[in-house]
Amino acid sequence: xxxxxxxxxxxxxxxxxxxxxxxxxxxxxxxxxxxxxxxxxxxxxxxxxxxxxxxxxxxxxxxxxxxxxxxxxxxxxxxxxxxxxxxxxxxxxxxxxxxxxxxxxxxxxxxxxxxxxxxxxxxxxxxxxxx
Length: 131
What we know:
Layout: H1 2-34, E1 63-66, E2 74-81, H2 83-86, E3 107-113, E4 118-125
Antiparallel strand pairs: 1-2, 2-3, 3-4
């Protein structure tokens, strides 16, 4: 009787360890496949960093500065990059002149207000466009 209980507990512990290992291994591989660093987006796609082209996950944002409008509806915007290209793990490049950007360079864009959301048009970087 005592050996049957021991055998049952050992089988139960083995099943729990297998289940834990399976979930740990496959959850990590799924998270790695979903990560924003590994995927590149096309220019103009939603949630794509204009500086490095990385697809951003929900909640990740591009660091930028927007300046007040000077009479017309559009505003000037400086785009510095996303968390991936700001930390230096991804190459930063200008979508207009294709120059490799240093950490101090940024993109210059024009932001238009639309009824439901904003629209951004990249004009260039600090090298090809002054302003």
